[in-house]
Structures are given as C-alpha cells and as structure tokens.
C-alpha cells in the first residue's frame, strides 16, 4: 500500500501555513474511503488492533479529530486505518508512508508481529496530542512499548512546526523537524539523511545511536550527524524505478533549476523551494505522472519503455489525498483545514473543509462499499474510467473541473473566514459545517458536470457508429 508524502514548513508556503500532504494508495484500484469527525464519545476506550491483536492502553481524555478511515462495514475485518486528520488543538497527523529497510536492521531489531502499525497510529495518537512534538514523543513511546510489524513514515504538524518520523526495525525510531523554509518528499523509502543526535530539531529512541555504533552500522564512517538513509534504508533495484523517481520529479517541479537524474539515490532530504508553495502546487505534484518528460505514460515523448519506466505518483490506486493545513493568518478557531480529494488524483479536484466541526458532508462521509454515483469516491472512479482511455480527448473538462473545485473552495473559505469572526462554540461549528456543505456541493456538482461532459464527448466517438 505505497503512498507519497510532501511536507512544507511555514516559511516555505505562500500564506505561512504548515502543510502535511499524502496520497493514500492501496494494493489495488478500490478501497472505498470516507471523511468523518470522531467525537470523544466515539473514540474507542478499549483499543485492540485487528491485524496484530495488540491491545493498547489509551488515556481517558480524547479530543475530537477528523479522520479518513475504512468503511463501517469493513472495520471489523481490517481495522480503522484513520490515515489523516486534524484534532481540536489544531495538531495534524498523517500516517503512514510505508517505508523500506534492510537486513542489517532486521537482524538487530526484528519486526514484532504482535505490535502496532498503520492501522492503529492515527487512532491511538491524534486524539491525545497538543503539539507536533508531543505526537512524535507519544508514538515513540508506543513503538518502544508495543513494537511494530512494518516500516513506516509518519508526519505531525502544528501552526509552527512540521515533523517527519520514521520507524526503524521493530522498536526503534527517529524523527526530524522539517526546516521552516523547506519541504521534503517521502516516496516509500527511508528518507532522513543528515541526522544530528545533539540537535533540538531531532528526536530518537534513547539507544538508537548506541545501536548504530555497537553494530558497526555507520557505513559512511561519518559519525554524528549520520546519514540514516544509508544506515537504515534500502538500495534495492526496485527503488530506482519505484521510489526514487517520484522524489526526483517533485523536486524538479519545486526546484526546476537544480538538475538531478531520476535514479539518483542521494537526492536531498529537505530543500528550499524556488517559489513559495501553495495547495495548488502540492495537488499538482501528488496528481502527477511525469508530465513534460519522456516518462509520462500519457505522453508522446520517448519510447514505450520510457513511458512505463517509473511508477507514477498519480495512479489508479490512489484512494484519497489529504492536505492538512494549519493556517497562521486566521484565528485558531478556524485555522485547521483538511483538503480532501477521493480516488485517482490525476482525475479529481480537491476541496477544503474546516475541521472545527462535529460532522462532515454526506457525499464524503457516507461512502458505500459498492458503486454509488452519489459518493465523491465513486464519482471520481467513474470519471477516471472514461478519461484514462483517451486522456487528451477529455483533458479540457478535467482541467476545468480541477480549477473550478479549487476556486469554489477557496471562495467559501474566504467568505466564511470573514463571517465567523465574532462567533464561538456551537454557533461557530454550525456555521463552519454549513460552509463545508456548500463546498462539498460545489465540488460534487463540478465533478458531475465533468462526468457528463466526458459521457457526451465520448458518446460521439464510440465505434458503434455507422
């Protein structure tokens, strides 16, 4: 279930917000998702993982938070998989970026099949933290106590800081603060490079440096700071076609004058973008498929082998994209915004939703297990199924839908930010929910218009025409 993550510090964005973005991908085309609010009364008290049967002792004081979990009908089979959300303290969490490791690590610290994993992380951490640093510390505590059965990257943010955390073996971890003026891209392999154990901007399990030294793991002979990617990551042949090119392409978008090769295993972990980043930049990057290069599967450049050389970022296994935005130019009561897109990102629009609410719009909340055109998730898949066959034929409708969805959402935010200045409590939440419903209606209507245009255009080209 590979994903792609982009994180941006507050001085790297155009409006001074912190941004945490991740495509949630799956092993095949369909894994229906829903966008919900989990209120304290709905937060599980006696938590047990479905995958590993691990029981986790949770605190008694959960906060309200948003999440993008499995459907109610499948939770008992596979677990919650909350994936991404913002809590009432305006702390965001995205989990996880499935990562890589190597045999040296696993020989020292094997995976724990009875531990915690992606299924659990958001549910057991996000309702209980009041800063990004607290998130790292709490998840680190759980990893050391319960262990994990997989390698993962996890992101936390608040209005000031963005942190990226990577699990190491069964019970170890490391985390680093994203520089305020920089962004990072994590493409399914161990990403952290220059890690200084003496810095205030890093955290790790207590014995991690000792583990490196005792087991001769510092293959660069560098000492502190260490290149953790070289120590704990993989360099498999598959990385060069599956993981590295995604990081290369997004860095190419944000730093076009800095030339690298798409199979460079030493791409920088953090970079200062050549222009301040926007929601539009992150959405384009996470919907991309190597446009304007010979590696674009829809392109006309290069050979057929070139066009299928690298795994795209936007692909049919995208299930949802959440861009978690904590804004610094508005009051805290409206600072948290979760931008949501369902289905394959190459063919969808993204819309913003206030997170200081008690419920979410129906078309995002009540996703059905099987096809239902009333659900944004399934509507996106319908558009994708038509447009993929002839992407150039439908490109005008797709691009208009993307732009209109973003513009309508931004307009609702702008109007609502002004209208709720004097509101508080339940009155404020009702107003924000009304704004979210307005945004959802605009997004759905725009997607339906695009769907209709695709049907009308395609109907003129069907082969049963005499």
UniProtKB/TrEMBL annotation:
Any single Pfam family the record assigns to this protein: Peptidase_C69
GO biological process, one term: proteolysis
Molecular-function GO terms, alphabetical: cysteine-type exopeptidase activity; dipeptidase activity
Catalyzed reaction equations: an L-aminoacyl-L-amino acid + H2O = 2 an L-alpha-amino acid
InterPro entries named in the record: C69_dipept_A-like, Peptidase_C69
Keyword set includes Nucleotide-binding: no
Alphabetical UniProt keywords: Dipeptidase, Hydrolase, Protease
Family per similarity comment: Belongs to the peptidase C69 family.
Protein name: Dipeptidase
